[in-house]
Amino acid sequence: MSGSDKAKAKTEQAKGKAKEAVGSAVGNESLEAEGRGDQAKGDVREAGEKAKDAVKDVLKRKD
User: Where are the beta strands (DSSP E) in the chain?
Assistant: First the structure.
């Protein structure tokens, strides 16, 4: 996983956790849901990058 893509995923996950926590603290269900959505986007981005890395590793071993 490239450094910048990994950082984007982690940032998105952290931003989502913060939004969810703030939403929960103030009773804002919409903000809470938005935070969970941001976390999910970060998780998907991270999974995609890990899949790319796995394919690259397989291709390197094949050579």
Answer: none
